[in-house]
């Protein structure tokens, strides 16, 4: 394989993994969910334990320039979260030109992530390649997701979002160690107080998750379990090495 092509493909895989949310923090989406949303923020759904929805995610920097954006399918059941992403529909300043198409041809564009706070694990799966990673959920994140963490909600006003009358709230989640996670939510009074929009900040970036087509039907529990027949890797580095080896072998044939 041409070295420059190999290097380009490695760059493409790395960019795809980063866009899908795979990183040392193992935060949601991709490694569990949308950028800007950790498993602790499942507390924002209150007494709602099960739902499915479409979600649009946007990340902007301090100058309001878009860093990333993507649509996704979102499901939650008893604090377990499943997110499905198609990277061909995503935008990211870190993605090289043509990377999405290349990821698709490599069978890496469809990403399914499952966050299991009960097991303190995150699963990231690539269905077309039958590959997956399992990574530890940060303990501080898992602790804040527990019911014994405190949640304080302060109303900021009322707004209408997608035809839903909403109360805009500042929400602070505090774990047992006193560490805080802050978010702004738009809670729809006609949807059981569901947060149809969640906004968080991390350093200079602001992440917004906008939910649509919210359904309070209980998703199938099997969706949050590991499928059979997948090869498991313990890190993005392991997966990338295996993927490159697989591509090189296919090109020799």
- Summed up, the domain count is 1
Q: Helical percent range?
A: 10-25%
CATH homologous superfamily caption = Lipoprotein localisation LolA/LolB/LppX
Give the overall pLDDT as a whole number: 79
**Which sheet architecture does the biggest sheet show?**
13 strands, mixed
The assigned CATH architecture is Clam
CATH topology: outer membrane lipoprotein receptor (LolB), chain A
* CATH class placement: Mainly Beta
Q: What is the helix/strand order?
A: HEEEEHEEEHEEEEEEH
Work out the strand percent: 35-45%
* Overall outline: globular
Query: Structural class, please?
Result: alpha+beta
Number of helices: 4
End-to-end Cα distance: 12 Å
Write a concise synopsis of the structure shown.
The chain has helices spanning 3-19, 99-105, 139-145, 236-252, and strands at residues 50-60, 66-77, 80-86, 91-92, 110-116, 121-126, 131-136, 150-161, 164-174, 180-188, 194-202, 205-215, 231-233.
From the structure above, extract its key features:
about 250 residues, alpha+beta, outer membrane lipoprotein receptor (LolB), chain A, globular, disordered N terminus
Q: What is the secondary structure topology, with strand pairs?
A:
Layout: H1 3-19, E1 50-60, E2 66-77, E3 80-86, E4 91-92, H2 99-105, E5 110-116, E6 121-126, E7 131-136, H3 139-145, E8 150-161, E9 164-174, E10 180-188, E11 194-202, E12 205-215, E13 231-233, H4 236-252
Parallel strand pairs: 7-13
Antiparallel strand pairs: 1-2, 1-12, 2-3, 2-4, 3-5, 5-6, 6-7, 8-9, 9-10, 10-11, 11-12
Helix pairs in contact: 1-2
